[in-house]
Design brief:
The complex is a heterotrimer of chains A (269), B (223) and C (809). Chain A is an alpha+beta fold and 269 residues long. Helix content of chain A is 28%, strand content 17%. A two-stranded antiparallel ribbon of chain B has the order 1-2. Classes of the chains: A alpha+beta (269), B mainly alpha (223), C alpha/beta (809).
């Protein structure tokens, strides 16, 4: 895809100012909701229907006893093999020309199938509107050649967006420059995500970040196997019935007169 | 017109059957509308895919109720195989597939029908339960819900296939069968061909109801 | 800032101390990260591990209020390990000057202390001068009375052991920071310091900053790219508000507010105009009379004449020895001596120290006028918690003001860049700019004075007051031009150096403050802003040129930086005495032929090696040199560590003087102090957070921000929380001897206990962003806890170090 984009989240430049978290709500006209202080800067405590991107704050002590405060901007990873797109019955979730996973909210029927399908636990359901919500990487901004609002708001350059190849290279160059446990996260699974992380620590260190995410096997079974099988089976039965009818014939009551059983029933299948 | 016909089903049975059948058909159609994006247009006929979802969900509830009555009603007649004749019937596939000189005589429901009933009962229950969980997926762990989708799909594969078998055998594959579920009255000849043992039982037990006749022991008949 | 935000990227080592830059100056922090990407070391010294610490190379925790000890130790390290930049120190600082013979320092006190008045007589804090009145110098720096040796002796007491024991910083960490930072004391390295309220909010705040200035002078980091001492200031226009005299003791452009004892203009000018006999000292403040007279002309215009002292007598005067800071205002209000209050864009019922006292004081007012975009706890104090509205006599008026983006005007950032901005939206409802409110009120007041006379009508009636447009509305451009200044008569300006004469017509704008006149020929509302317009009226503040000829990010055509568009002040110190840049890779300025090339220099004179025409680089100092010995401060020429008013120690480990000897102690019944008191065992500090602005009076109404930081919390180290049995997220009560506040416990590894004088001392911290008005369940002001005490020089309140207790509820 020529226009394929990647958003790079360089966690080593993030100051957790949460400008992105607010800018996202502003652009997408999502309300701020009532929260409680629960002993963390991370608020709302998790992604929710009005919160498509969330800075996760995590206090982490390494094996060597070094303390770090890790910040990770959570949100849709925009998978190439997107489980949500696979399961979406209505096409509300779809791939865009940028390779991102768009969400056509008017088509969403609120079936919530994507919620359980997503390996990153991203889509969120709103009972009132009976729809799911998630980041669409500001598709309407991308269309206008603008960067997504989170990228636009980022003061430090932790968030950048650009062509897939260039951004992948940039990510690897940055990880190499940082050395140590720094690594690139995102390009090695689900066909490659359109959001890449440069992580300061190994992926396993981060809360709520799957180490090896994949499209759930159950979804492959049902979408790639059972779905065609349903047609195949039904088609087989119809074909079988037709053959039965023309070869074996219907099972008729025995005629009282010419009672010669089996006469018209030659052969079988 | 109906004179001489024999009552195969009563009104309640037919209501239950058709409740189940129609809801199942509705579920299949609406389900297909959600299963294949190319069939999303089915939703348009209901005012949008979202309405279709609600039709599917609430029809599912109706289906569940119908299924309950179906199972309760037919469990004894169709849920239990009677040996050895059922086994023999199965061995010769009830004479449906190849020529059999003498099909073992079965009761009100032959093993084929029994298997169909069991499939409907079993997979129907699965569809109902998995569907219910899919309706409220946020109340269960994602891992469990993901499995529900697979089972729901698997159930559909089976039920959808059986549906066509049933459709064929209930109509042109076995002319006269449809009457059993439409009017409840069937011809003696049909009954004799399809359910000879049941006919005999009814005659022996004096439960045979012949249209326009008092309920009496049937006239002697050979078979 | 001596430098400017973008310049942070040019640094090799950035010490962030007294600042949580990433959280409170997120955009400035971008430039810090740029420096880091280029290999600069970023060090964060702060009691608490913050979002800033997370992005620095390392974080060094220190006990609140011990910054001078930490920095004094650094001076000791620099001197003992020969890390100082000799060429710079010798030529550009007063290190070689000889301190007067009667100056002494003993057991924490300098000579001249009056314990009764808590004040110094500074007569002995002098530098010796020769017969011509030029300071004596010992260029060998060996004279035991020279500033360098005196300084060395003073800070020799700040040993690693001592400093570690006071600050709670491990010796390894002290050495790590000292080594890293002092490595910039060479000519091709630049180190800078970023501070904010973490330094100013102390009883020793000004002296902390001065200690750092001394370090920067010792390392040759002042006046260079990537160097300087940089105050990161708050809201977009905090710099502008101080430039334009928001504080009681200054007039616009940092001119001095006249005291009553200086009853004539001549006396005032004599007192405030420094004199230097040294021909090489530019002593730029010798021009003070020009700036001040031009200011008076801007106030009273034609009414100000040479005969009436340009209206000096109409200027309000401060009573001698009396201070008028925010704390003093509330102290006097609490005594019942202040009857009315204008509270414009402020919420002192939340933001001022000692909330109990402040809220009680408000009840004693007859009237209050608020001007703001939202209601707040101050304007609604009469119905606040525990207040019976029936018992409050105060009449409160709240006037709706427009927000900053709803009006045109200038705003100045910390780098002194004055940027013009335009109105982006109409204010909702009846909201109008506070400038317009002022215009309307003053028009009515003048009309009343004109009609009824009054006690002292002259200043009111003689005031030049024509800042409205043709529709009678406040005209920001008109005000700005008046601030810049006009020629009031045809004037010929002669440039002797260039041998040119230029004639300016009456009514033309003054293009630079060098042209301001002492005879009343010019008017300028704020001399540092003279030059924000060109003579022909072009608004230089509105310039948006993106050219960067030096490649150092000076952007000379973007906005206007005072003074005279100089981007880095004291920039002549970036070159050696011959005018060659110390660091050719970051060539801020260079003497080429007969002129300076690069940034706008601190004056056109040749470098100081030219003994005839050359001048020293620190032109605003009377001596022309950076002051290692600084007698301007009220508590002594060398900063000294004193404990906060409330601390964990009963004795200062460095001397017999426990607290800053020059701070004012407030004595009302609500000004209680509990030093080294077992009932309040934990050091407490307060701060803001990224998500709210100050008291939160503006931001708490914003649902997106409130969602992220919904209510008051106290950050408690996990070890202390374990000892107290406090779970994360539990409700707790934090109390000081003055008051208490309930909030949510945020148990964290980011606060670690300190080892102070052999004892374990825990510190906790709370933001001060919440008030009872909204949200209803967000708790109330953190300042119930804080003491009414402030810096000895500025009276900036001590919000950063005091003692509390924490209990489960």
């Amino acid at each position: 895809m020529e226009k394929e984009l990647i958003k790079l989240i360089d966690t080593t430049k993030c100051t957790a100012c949460r400008g992105c978290q607010v800018a996202c709500k502003q652009w997408n006209e999502m309300p701020g909701l009532k929260t409680k202080q629960w002993g963390s800067y991370q608020n709302p405590p998790d992604l929710q229907w009005n919160t498509w991107t969330l800075i996760r704050f995590q206090e982490y002590v390494s094996d060597k006893g070094a303390f770090k405060w890790l910040f990770r901007k959570d949100g849709c990873m925009h998978c190439t093999d997107a489980a949500c797109v696979k399961v979406c019955p209505s096409g509300a979730l779809h791939h865009t020309e940028f390779g991102t996973v768009g969400l056509n909210s008017s088509r969403c029927i609120g079936c919530k199938e994507c919620v359980s399908a997503c390996p990153f636990d991203i889509p969120r359901y709103n009972r009132e509107t009976d729809k799911i919500y998630k980041c669409d990487l500001c598709y309407n901004r991308l269309r206008g050649d603008e960067s997504p609002s989170c990228v636009k708001s980022c003061p430090t350059g932790a968030l950048t967006i650009g062509r897939k190849d260039a951004m992948t290279k940039k990510a690897y160059a940055r990880a190499k420059e940082l050395g140590g446990d720094a690594n690139v996260y995102g390009d090695k699974f689900v066909g490659g995500t359109h959001v890449l992380y440069v992580l300061d620590e190994k992926a396993k260190v981060y809360d709520n970040l799957p180490r090896d995410p994949s499209v759930p096997f159950s979804i492959i079974v049902w979408k790639d196997m059972l779905k065609p099988l349903a047609l195949l089976a039904a088609g087989g039965v119809l074909a079988g019935s037709f053959l039965h009818y023309i070869l074996h014939g219907p099972k008729l009551p025995d005629e009282p007169g010419p009672n010669e059983p089996g006469k018209e029933e030659k052969g079988g299948e | 017109m109906r004179k001489g016909l024999i009552q195969a089903t009563d009104g309640f049975e037919r209501i239950v059957h058709w409740s189940l059948a129609l809801s199942c058909i509705a579920l299949c159609i609406t389900g297909l509308g959600m299963m294949y994006q190319s069939l999303n247009f089915i939703g348009d006929m209901m005012g949008g895919l979202k309405s279709l979802k609600y039709v599917h969900n609430f029809t599912g509830v109706f289906f569940g109720v119908a299924l309950y009555f179906t199972i309760r009603m037919w469990w004894k007649e169709a849920g239990i195989f009677s040996m050895p004749e059922d086994l023999e019937w199965i061995r010769c596939a009830g004479g449906y597939l190849w020529h059999v000189d003498k099909v073992p005589e079965t009761g009100k429901y032959n093993p084929g029908q029994k298997m169909f009933f069991l499939a409907v009962a079993g997979f129907g229950a699965i569809m109902f339960l998995t569907g219910l969980m899919m309706w409220f997926p946020l109340s269960f762990p994602a891992m469990i819900v993901r499995l529900m989708y697979v089972l729901h799909a698997l159930g559909f594969v089976v039920i959808f296939a059986f549906f066509f078998v049933h459709l064929y055998l209930g109509t042109i594959g076995s002319p006269g069968s449809l009457d059993a579920m439409l009017t409840g009255w069937v011809s003696r000849a049909w009954l004799k061909k399809q359910h000879p043992k049941w006919l005999k039982e009814m005659e022996e037990h004096g439960t045979l109801v012949v249209y326009g006749e008092e309920k009496t022991a049937a006239k002697g008949h050979g078979h | 800032m001596t430098n400017h935000y973008i310049d942070l990227k040019n640094s090799d080592c950035i010490l962030i101390m007294g600042s949580n830059a990433a959280e409170h100056h997120p955009i400035a922090f971008k430039w810090i990260l740029r420096a880091k990407e280029k290999g600069a070391k970023i060090i964060h010294v702060d009691p608490r591990y913050t979002r800033t610490s997370a992005r620095c190379d390392y974080h060094v925790p220190l006990r609140s209020g011990t910054d001078i000890a930490f920095l004094g130790g650094m001076i000791n390290y620099i001197v003992n390990n020969d890390k100082w930049f000799k060429d710079y120190v010798l030529n550009y600082t007063n290190a070689s000057f000889i301190v007067g013979p009667d100056f002494t320092f003993q057991d924490g006190l300098f000579s001249g202390y009056d314990a009764q008045k808590r004040k110094y007589n500074k007569d002995t804090w002098v530098l010796e001068k020769d017969s011509k009145g030029i300071p004596k110098r010992d260029m060998s720096l060996n004279d035991p009375r020279c500033v360098f040796q005196m300084m060395k002796t003073h800070y020799s007491r700040y040993t690693l052991d001592k400093v570690s024991s006071i600050t709670g910083v491990s010796k390894e960490n002290l050495l790590k920071v000292y080594e890293e930072y002092s490595a910039t004391g060479v000519k091709d390295k630049a180190g800078t310091e970023c501070y904010a309220l973490g330094w100013t909010h102390h009883t020793t705040g000004s002296q902390i900053i001065r200690t750092m200035s001394m370090i920067q002078l010792l390392l040759g980091n002042m006046g260079i790219c990537g160097g300087g001492v940089n105050a990161l200031r708050g809201e977009p226009n905090v710099q502008g508000s101080t430039d334009h005299a928001i504080l009681y003791n200054i007039l616009p452009g940092y001119l001095k507010m006249p005291p009553a004892s200086l009853d004539t203009l001549d006396k005032y000018l004599e007192k405030n105009t420094p004199v230097s006999k040294d021909p090489q000292s530019a002593n730029y403040y010798q021009n003070y009379p020009k700036f001040f007279v031009s200011f008076l002309k801007s106030m009273f215009h034609d009414k100000a004449t040479a005969e009436n002292g340009f209206g000096y007598s109409w200027m309000p005067k401060l009573d001698d020895g009396v201070h008028y800071s925010l704390m003093h205002l509330f102290d006097k209000m609490y005594e019942g001596k202040i009857k009315g209050l204008f509270a414009v864009g402020t919420d002192p019922a939340v933001s001022s120290p000692n909330t109990n006292k402040v809220r009680k004081a408000l009840e004693k007012l007859d009237w209050m006028v608020g001007e703001n975009i939202f209601n707040n706890e101050t304007y609604s104090f009469w119905k606040g918690p525990g207040v019976d509205p029936k018992q409050v006599k105060t009449e409160v008026f709240l006037l709706p003001a427009s927000a900053s983006m709803e009006k045109e005007g200038s705003q100045s950032n910390s780098g002194r860049w004055v940027q013009w901005k335009y109105k982006a939206a109409e204010a909702p409802g009846d909201g109008i700019p506070v400038g317009e409110i002022t215009i309307k009120i003053m028009a009515a007041v003048r009309a009343l004075y004109a009609k009824e006379g009054g006690v002292h009508p002259d200043p009111i009636l003689n005031l030049k007051w024509d800042y409205t447009d043709i529709k009678g509305r406040y005209d920001a451009l008109k005000v700005s031009k008046q601030i810049n200044g006009y020629f009031l008569k045809d004037t010929v300006i002669e440039d002797k150096a260039a041998g040119t004469k230029t004639e300016f017509k009456k009514g033309q704008l003054v293009p630079t403050f060098g042209m301001l006149q002492v005879d009343g020929a010019t008017a300028s509302g704020n001399w540092v802003m003279a030059g924000s317009f060109t003579a022909t009226g072009e608004n230089r503040m509105a310039k948006r040129g993106k050219d960067d000829p030096t490649g150092l990010g000076l952007y000379p055509n973007w906005s206007y930086a005072w003074p005279v568009n100089r981007r880095i002040i004291y920039n002549r110190a970036s070159c050696d005495i011959y005018g060659k840049p110390y660091n050719p890779k970051r060539k801020l300025l260079e003497w080429v032929g007969d002129k300076w090339v690069g940034d706008v220099p601190d004056g056109p004179w040749p470098p100081q090696a030219d003994k005839e025409k050359g001048k020293y680089p620190f032109i605003m100092k009377a001596d022309g040199l950076g002051a290692l010995f600084g007698p301007g401060m009220v508590e002594g020429p060398f900063p000294e560590h004193y404990e906060p008013l409330e601390g964990p120690l009963a004795k200062n480990p460095l001397s017999g003087q426990l607290i800053n000897p020059a701070i004012e102690i407030f004595k009302s019944d609500l000004d209680k102090v509990a030093n080294a008191d077992a009932k309040f065992p934990y050091v407490c500090t307060t701060y803001s957070c990224t998500e709210h602005w100050c008291s939160g009076a503006l931001t708490r109404w914003q649902a997106w921000l409130l969602e992220m930081q919904p209510e008051l919390y106290v950050e408690i180290g996990d070890l202390l929380a374990r000892d107290l049995g406090i779970r994360n997220g539990a409700k707790v009560r934090v109390s000081s001897i003055r008051g208490a506040v309930e909030c949510v416990a945020m148990v964290t590894k980011r606060f670690k206990p300190f080892q102070i004088e052999g004892k374990t001392v825990h510190q906790v911290g709370l933001p001060f962003n919440y008030g009872w008005l909204f949200p209803k369940d967000g708790s109330d002001s953190t300042n119930f806890l804080t003491p009414t005490v402030g810096d000895a020089n500025t009276f900036c309140p001590e919000y950063k170090a005091f003692m509390v207790n924490v209990q489960k509820i």
